[in-house]
Amino acid sequence: MGYYVNVKNDVKIYVEDLNPESKKAILFLHGWPGNHSLFEYQFNKLPALGYRCIGIDTRGFGKSDKPFFGYDYNTLSDDVRDVVEALGLRDFTLAGHSTGGAIAIRYMGRHKGYGVNKLVLIAAAAPSLIKRPNFPYGIDVETVLQMITATYNDRPQMLRNFGDRFFFEHTSQAFSDWFFQLGLQAAGWATAAVAQTWINEVLFADMQAIHVPTLIAHGIHDKVVPFQLGEIQRRLIRNSILVPFRFSGHGLFYDQRNEFNDLLVRFIESPA
User: Fold this and answer.
1) What residue ranges of the chain have pLDDT lower than 50?
2) Does residue 64 have an active-site annotation?
3) Active site residue 222
């Protein structure tokens, strides 16, 4: 079932909520520039295994409102907190992919992991997606600036180019078109603003504040968020494990969807 949650400044956030009767909840935060539908191949399976699957469309993306401002990690994590409180979630698993992983990490730092008992980072764009003077990892800032420029000049072509780098396994043309349409559902200004946030913000302190068991899943062929960032996350987050996906790129939840789903279930069911 789908519905809206009002967050601050009367922004409406779209929530897809499957199997809400279950007490075993997983809250999914999608990556840029998609929406909750990226997790279709988790939502197909996990509710049948007894899990409540909740997908949020980040503001500016999917079916959520698209205000002109509010695309910094603080505001985006505040939106998550408002949804968590509105749904009365407790002892849930928070799972974030790419930029959704960055938002999840800020949530753990800013909101002290409110309600979260386990964290799953899926090719998370953290602690910094871009290389910095004291952080020679990630991608070049020029790459992000080119994506922002392309967003303002020819967003459909930018999305096509990005989709070509997203998956490692071959996808059909129909699947590629579906992925492209997810990106088009976002607002152009939101697409550019979140990319600017990759440049503006870092998450080192937030990562060190994480206090729950954490699963880090990362494709070794990732061309969007290099695998090395997953290794750094493992070093910075206490009580974390890193699982490399050897036949995956950035979209490991699709490239190796059965393996990913099985790993997610094992991690959730394992003792804390």
Assistant:
1) none
2) no
3) yes
pTM of the shown model: 0.98
Q: Is 129 helix (H, G, I), strand (E, B) or coil?
A: coil
Q: Give the contacts of 166 (CB within 8 A, at least 6 positions apart).
A: 179, 224, 249, 250, 251
**What are the structural domains, with CATH classification, of the chain?**
2-269 (3.40.50.1820)
Angle at alpha carbon of residue 190, lines to 264 and 31, rounded to 5°? 15
What pLDDT does residue 272 have?
Answer: 72
Amino acid at residue number 11: V
Q: Are 123 and 224 a contacting pair, CB within 8 Å?
A: yes
State yes or no: is 255 an active-site residue.
no
Query: Which residue of the set 30, 65, 250, 255 is catalytic?
Result: 250
Sheet-wide strand order for 25-29: 2-6, 12-18, 52-56, 25-29, 92-97, 116-122, 214-219, 240-245
The residue annotated as part of the active site, out of 64, 77, 98, 240, is: 98
CA distance 24 to 51: 5
For position 169, what pLDDT does the model report?
80
